[in-house]
Each structure stands twice: as structure tokens, then as C-alpha cells.
Amino acid sequence: MADENKAEIVGTPALDGTYIAEMDMWPFECQEFNRIYPFYDNLRAGKFTTTKCQKCGHIAYPPGVICPRCWSDELEWVELPQRAKVVTFTETQAGAPIGFPSPLIMAWLTFGEGAPLKHLLARIINCKEGELKEGDEVKFVVFDVPSHPIEVKKETKIRERVYYAFEPVK
Ligand SMILES: [Zn+2]
Question: pTM for the complete prediction?
Fold first, then answer.
């Protein structure tokens, strides 16, 4: 990881290094702004995780700070499967939102019977136009996101960010 105060690229790359908060579609990942920050720490460690309720056993995705079923706040982090199959998908070949290269592929994934998470809508990367098919196997992948400046005790710090997607299994 780079030096905390070194700002090489800040913001959406298409904006030439100018940070415009309104156009930033990535989550604030640091502890100062986000109570589910362990999700992002886990991403950095290559783990796909979510929260499980210790009271009723419900596994929710996306992760949260309160169980949506029984309102308990006694949650623990559990790992999710990293391989899935494509049920169906959309592929935007032109006019993808700023910051997203074409094709922009969003897929409805299934993790199969018995998995803690049945389905997920996820982005597919590292895939050429027209290459993805229904039924294809995909795997979890973590990628870098432009860093984010935050104010901590009147000091501007640069927070590195990552996010996840899935990619075809070759
Ligand atoms: Zn619960």
C-alpha cells in the first residue's frame, strides 16, 4: 500500500485527477466514515465476506450493523463463496457511466444449493465484448479504486480504496 499522504490519483480517473464528490460512486471505506469497514479490510485480504446474526443465524448481504430479521446487533463476519454461475446478464457496449470502461457487464449470479448466499447482482470485469454466456462460471476478484481524501482532525488524509467484481474462469 502507498504512503497515506501521497495523492497520485484522487477521484474518478476520467476527470484528470480532479476530485468531484458528487460523481464518486465508490463507498467511503475507512473506519471514520463507515461502520462496515471490516468488509473492505477483508476485501484487501482477498476475502468476500458479510455479516451473520449470532442470535438467529440470518446471513444478510450486503453486510450491515443490525440483523434485518430480528434487529439484533450481535453480528459476526463470515466468508462467502468466491465462485458462482451466471444466470443472466446485461452488457452495455456504448455509453457506460463515466469511470466505467465498456463493456459494462452486470450479471445475476447463483451460488448454488446450500450456499450462505443464493444470488447476487455483480459486475463482471476482465471480459471482452460478446464473450460472456449464461451458465459461465465466474470468480471473485478485488481491484483498486481511486483513493479518497478525508478530513481527520483538520488534516487531509488520502484513503486507499478497493472494490470487488467477478471475472470469467478461464
Ligand atoms: Zn437475527
Answer: 0.84
What's the CA-to-centroid distance between 70 and ligand 1, angstroms? 4
75 CA → ligand 1 middle, Å: 8
User: Are 2 and 8 within 8 A, CB to CB?
Assistant: yes
At residue 4, the pLDDT reads 47
Centre of ligand 1 from the C-alpha of residue 164, in Å: 26
Strand partners for 106 = 90, 123
Judged on CB neighbours under 10 Å (0-12, 13-18, 19+), 129 is exposed
Phi–psi pair at 13, nearest 5 degrees = -55, -35
Distance 78 CA to ligand 1 centre (A): 14
Candidates 134, 138, 38; CA nearest to 83 is: 138
Alpha helices per DSSP H over the chain: 37-44
pLDDT tens for residues 4-17? 444 444 555 555 55
